[in-house]
Amino acid sequence: MRLGATARDRVADVLRDEIMTGQLRPGSRLDLDDTAYRLGTSRTPIREACLALQHEGLVRIAPRSGITVVGLSRRDVEDNFALISMLSGAAAAWAAQRISASQLAQVRRLAGDVRHAVEQGGDPRTANFCFHRAINRASDSVRLIALIRQTGRIVPWSFFDLVPEQVGCALREHDDIVDALAAGNAARARRVSEEHVINAGELLVARMFDAEPGGTGPAPSTGPTGG
């Protein structure tokens, strides 16, 4: 789970992943007691997580019908990754101009941690999260970081499990981002960061909505806003 996550955040991460991967399909109902038992927690964080997911458009809460999974359309996911790309690009560009020597050393070390986890067959998710968080913090923009945190929730915590083919690309792109930051090249940092997110988004969309990349299979979690 994400570092520093509350019980509500941890539950929201699990349910969001299950919706994004189609384990919880559109139209299915979420029972608070059953979900609390399944996730080993109480009703309160389940209820709070569902309120957060309703705000994201992933579930609908109604007085009589309870909690219903809505899911995401292809356009929803594409739009979210486009937004994350622009915001991450801005963060990297500003970081290239504002990053301190100690922050750059931290980003470089975290990129190495991601690579080490991958090469050792470990779990790179926490290191990957910390790598991107360090870049965002180096942008020195509280408002931008808040926007990235809000839009970035749509990226499944299990992303690398869903699209393992992205791992090798991600390592190369991380190196490119670090090089751009070290050179103080804001334009290049923006470009490679945007491409990093777009590449990841395209793979995830293909996995979620196509039978195979380039195919036309059905979406596992297309909501009512889908085309």
Spatial order of the strands in the main sheet?
1-3-2
Any idea what the CATH superfamily of the largest domain is called? GntR ligand-binding domain-like
Strand content: under 5%
Q: How does the overall form come out from the CA principal axes?
A: elongated
CATH architectural group of the largest domain? Up-down Bundle
Mean pLDDT score: 87
Helix content: 55-70%
What's the main sheet like? Answer: 3 strands, antiparallel
Number of helices, counting only DSSP H or I runs of 4 residues or more: 10
Separation of termini? 32 Å
CATH fold type of the largest domain: Four Helix Bundle (Hemerythrin (Met), subunit A)
Order of helical and strand elements: HEHHEEHHHHHHH
Structural class assignment:
mainly alpha
What integer value in Å does the Rg equal?
18 Å
Q: Number of domains in the coordinates?
A: 2
Number of strands: 3
Residue windows where pLDDT falls under 50 for at least 5 positions:
211-227
By CATH reckoning, the class of the largest domain would read: Mainly Alpha
